[in-house]
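Now for one specimen:
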Amino acid sequence: MGTDVTELFVVITVIAVALIFDFTNGFHDSANAMAGPIATGALRPRTAVILAALLNLLGACLSTEVAKTISGGFFDDSLITAPIILAGLLGAIIWNLVTWLVGLPSSSSHALFGGLIGAVVVGAGITSVHGWVIVSKVLLPAIVAPLVAGIAAAWATRLAYRITRKTPSVHSNAGFKYGQAFTASMVALAHGTSDGLITLVLITANLQASGTGPQMWVIIASGVAIGFGTYSGGWRIMRTMGKGIVEIETPQGAASGAATSATILASAHLGFGLSTTHVSTGSILGSGVGREGAEVRWSVARRMVFAWLLTLPGAGLVGGLAALLSDQGVPGVVALLVLLTAACLVIYFISRRHRITHANVTDSHEVLVLAAATPTTYADDPRLDTPKPKKAKRPKAKSAA
């Protein structure tokens, strides 16, 4: 009886932490869909995140192919335990929070894969990882998909400007704003199709048959968690995506959104563990290349690529270290929860030093963490207004007698 209670406690804990990951997935990746419309003014910030939250929830119910791949393809189910999954989730959540803090749009999906791989290798051995599935379903799409989306966005952007070159900008901008809002909504819908880790937990606990897809309550719970996360904003990454890479105009936003949503929906249908972040970034870079005279900040793009390369090993290292504790039974699970709580609080309080909200998300292209802000960094931010020093009064000269 005691063993059953302990196992149930661990399973419930892992499901709760999985929903926390879904929450971080929502606020970390909401920028993928809505950074462009917010930057160009096609959608108001609050309206954009509410719309994205609802569409993420709807998208979670449309496709479960990626969830089936995670629960029945990456690992040997018979060797995976719930504490190992908890350790993997720890690695993914901490990586998500660190990259969110510095405003780098790394992949939540790849953070999850990396955390799980690290935890599984330490906890169950490297033979329990199906290497070819990971290469074919994760690594190859991570290279090919951003290139495809970037090329498609570049050509679509060039075509959009060519078609409307004789149209008054007032009319063309209005039309592209509607188009941008629509394509951004499609990206939000597509992003919701890439979740379903809780199924793997249920399979390892013998509460669900191996190889089966997610149950309806799992889909709804994950979708709601992603939706709430999306509603919370993710403004730090939204600034980088909307302003940091390239100054987006409405034709670019519409073209990049169309390229992103088409690529993600096709990949989700095929069961690829695709990164929405990688595809969105590739599309935005492509739209900058496609617009003549656009300033593409390649230094920011290089930092993002560097973060992408570190995501799998970085999250895997944290997941592997966490797996050393997860093997210690209930005390180990409790210790992991304490460490996760502490890490979340530290990162949260650091982020409060330079807050980014819906009110100042488009004021600058930089995301500051520890550096001191100056009044010119966020020129339109009323919180940083400094009173002008008063001029000292000169004594009046005495008139000669």
Q: What stands out?
A: The two ends are 108 Å apart (CA to CA).
